[in-house]
Amino acid sequence: LLGQILDHWFESEPLKATLATDAVIGAMASPHTPGSGYVLLHHVMGELEGRRGAWGYVAGGMGALSHAIAQAATARGAHIFAEKAVCHVLLGRAGEAQGVVLQDGTEVRSKLVLSNASPQITFLDLIPQEQLPKDFVQRIRQLDTRSPVTKINVAVDRLPSFLAAPNARDGQPLPHHQCSIHLNCEGTQLLHQAFTEAAHGHPSSRPMIELCIPSVLDPGLAPPGCHVVSLFTQYTPSVLAGGRSWDEQARNAYADTVFDCIEDYAPGFKASVIGRDILTPPDLERIFGLPGGNIFHGGMSLDQLYFARPVPSYSGYRSPIPGLYLCGSGAHPGGGVMGAAGRNAAQVAIKDFRHL
Q1: Is the bond leading into 310 cis (omega within 30 degrees of zero)?
Q2: What is the pLDDT along the chain (356 residues), one digit of tens a residue?
Q3: How many CB atoms neighbour CB 312 within 10 A?
Q4: Local structure of residue 180 (DSSP, 8 states)
Q5: E strand map for the chain
Q6: At 194, which helix (H) or strand (E)?
Q7: How far apart are CA 231 and CA 55, in angstroms?
Q8: Cα→Cα distances 270→19, 62, 69, 71, 262, Å
Q9: Which residues form the Amine oxidase domain (predicted)?
């Protein structure tokens, strides 16, 4: 349990609760949920520029990372087709992958196909169901993809000034503006209460908020004097109590709750807001293809990790379709901007390719 890990190493409840947020990020789970301790450890896996467990901002925004990977690939002869939706995987007579078919009918032939889409999209949408074992399809359908995350992007005309650490007179950024700021995290019980509300179909009345201001470190993201604020919030259920959907009124009501909470810590924040973009779990699914809005393509619970990711017998990147590989967050070792699943899948595919 997460609580046991934190209690062993720390005494301060606010510190334990702040660390606990990394154990429930992207998970419809409470800090008291068995297995949550793994998710915390998952978030300090690896290193950044020699610093173990470190995280960083990407200059130019997260899209710049994709662009850098694309440039590296094209420099080595890859051809990249953006905005070309894949309709289905092309199969040969023996049921092996032979390429993909685009929505405009174009066929792209290939000896191997690697899918960075979720297991659900890859196997339930892009492959005819009769080509897959029934028990495999059933397991993919049963994957837990619940997500509590609503992402809110905010444009502001000045830096937030927090009561606990007021801004300097010149308005220049302070050290805490360059970090991840955790709000409503004074105790793990607060996080558990927020989870309990969402489990009953109600957006948290006091949501867990992780606030970042990337424009402090990357001024090109906003005009001079202005900033962009990224709010990673939870808990919000995909479907509201009574089967209600996330209409405009529900979205704005939740965002107002989040902004009211920030206002308590940083008076004047609401007055500084120029615009906001609200992405609920259904929005994240519709726009980015994340099943259930889950940023990890599926829960990072112990029953969906290691040899069971995405399902038992297929944790090694290969699939029931010869020549089709899974290389995204739904594969081992799971989500996070680390590239481990892609690297591992590529090595398996290269090994197989040599025998074709």
Answers
A1: yes
A2: 787 888 899 999 999 999 999 889 899 999 888 888 888 888 887 788 888 888 888 988 889 999 999 999 999 999 999 899 999 999 999 999 999 999 999 999 999 999 999 999 999 999 999 999 999 999 999 999 999 999 999 999 999 999 999 999 888 899 999 999 999 999 999 999 999 999 999 999 999 999 999 999 999 999 999 999 999 999 999 999 999 999 999 999 999 999 999 999 999 999 999 999 999 999 999 999 999 999 999 999 989 999 999 999 999 999 999 999 999 999 999 998 889 999 999 999 999 999 88
A3: 13
A4: -
A5: 47-48, 51-52, 86-91, 97-102, 107-109, 113-115, 150-156, 181-183, 208-212, 227-234, 273-279, 324-326
A6: helix 188-199
A7: 17
A8: 27, 26, 37, 40, 8
A9: 34-178
Residue type, position 20, single letter? A
Residue the block writes with tokens 């800090």: 31
Tokens encoding 186: 């004074």
Residues in the chain: 356
| Stretch(es) of the chain classified as CATH 3.50.50.60 | 82-144+298-354
Please tell me the CATH code under which domain 82-144+298-354 is placed: 3.50.50.60
128 token code pair: 């005819």
For residue 2, what is the enclosing H or E element? helix 2-9
Nearest-angstrom CA–CA distance, 240 and 40: 28
Both structure tokens of 191: 């996080």
